[in-house]
Amino acid sequence: MRNLFFFLLLSFSVCNAQHVSIKRDSISSTKDTIFLSVKNNMLSPMFLKIIPIDSTSRSIVYTKNTVLQPSEKLIGFMKVPRNILETDTSKINLSNYFSFKAGYGDPSTVKHNNTYQYLLPYKKRRKLIQGNFGKFSHDHIASNHAFDFGTQIGDTLYAAREGKVVMLKEDSKKHGRTRKYINDGNYIIIQHDDGTTASYYHLDFKGALVEKGDLVQRGQVIGISGMTGFTTVPHVHFVVHKATVDNGNVSVPIQFEGYIGKKFKKGKRYARKK
Questions:
Q1: 222: how many CB neighbours lie within 10 A of its CB?
Q2: 20 Cβ partners below 8 Å, 6+ apart?
Q3: Burial of 212 (0-12, 13-18, 19+ CB in 10 A)
Q4: How many whole angstroms separate alpha carbon 39 and alpha carbon 46?
Q5: pLDDT digit string, tens, across residues 74-124
Q6: Which of 9-18, 143-152, 161-170, 202-211 has the lowest mean pLDDT?
C-alpha cells in the first residue's frame, strides 16, 4: 500500500483564507486515516481558526485554534477518515467541510499602537482611488480600513513604519478586474513591534527591493509599484492588519503623519509631508 501524508501550507491569500489547498508530503498515514499537518511559511506568528460548515466535519478530528510560530509545522492537526474522501486521496478540498480564518500574528499579544503616525508609502502627490469602506473591494473586515493610492507603474514605494519583512511575493505578471485574480498580486508584508502587519499590494513583477527577514526603517525604499492581482488600474493597496480569534485578519484604522484628524476623500490627491 502506498503511504500518504498531506500538509497544509499557510500561504493563501493575504485577504482571506477561504480557499485552502493540500499538498502531499512523504510521511506515512494509517490504513484508515490520513493525517494533515499545517506549516507556517511566514517569518511571523500566524493564527488559524477552523470552523465546521458541513455535517461530514463531525467525523474529522481537528485542532480548532492554532498559533504557529515562524516556520513551525504542526503534525496531525487534522485526522481525516479515508472513507469520507474522494476516490483520489491526493485531492482533498477541505473547503467542502470547513471555513478557515487566518491572521498574521498572535491574537493574545497583538495590540495596535493607535497613536502611531504612518508615512504615506510614496512621496509624490497621488490620487486616492478607493478609501476606507470602499464598495469595490474594501467591503470586507480585512480591508475596511485600507487605502488605494493611484500610483504609476514604476513608482518607488517606502516603508510606512519600521519593522521586519515577514513575507513577500514578486513573481506575478497577472491582473484582472475580478476576484479570481486576488492571489496574483505581488506584495510585501512587514510586521511591526506591536504585532500588527502592514501589507503593500500590487507591486510590479520583481518589484520587491527587500528580502524576507530584512529589518527595514521607516521611510526606507522597499519596492516598485505595479499592476498585479485584483485591480483595474495601477495603484498601491496599503492596509494594517491585526490577528483576532473571532475574525482572523482584520484591518485597523490608522493615521498618516501630516493628516491627523483629516479624513481622506476619494478623488483627492495626497503627498507625503516629509
A1: 24
A2: 8, 12, 94, 95, 98, 100
A3: middle
A4: 10
A5: 877 888 887 776 555 555 677 778 888 888 899 999 999 999 999 999 999
A6: 9-18
Report how far residue 94's alpha carbon sits from residue 51's, in angstroms, rounded to the nearest whole number.
11
Residues in contact with 93: Cβ distance below 8 Å, sequence separation at least 6, in sequence order: none
Q: Which domains does the chain have, with CATH numbers?
A: 5-104 (no CATH), 117-270 (2.70.70.10)
Quick one: cell of 152?
504609476
**CA dist., res. 98 & res. 173, Å (int):** 31
272 vs 37, higher pLDDT: 272
- Residue 65 burial by Cβ neighbours in a 10 Å radius (0-12, 13-18, 19+): exposed
Position 144: which residue type? N
Question: What are the b/e assignments for 23-59, b being 16+ CB within 10 Å?
Answer: eebeeebeeeebbbbbbbebbbbbbbbbeeeeeebee
3-state SS assignment for residue 184: helix
Average pLDDT over residues 16-41: 60
Residue with the three cell numbers 485552502: 20
Sheet hosting strand 65-68, strand order edge to edge = 65-68, 46-52, 98-104
> What would the grid cell of residue 71 be?
516556520
| 140 vs 68: CA distance, rounded Å | 25
Dist CA 178 CA 58 (whole Å): 34
Q: Which pLDDT tens digit goes with each residue over 31-54?
A: 788 888 888 888 989 888 888 988
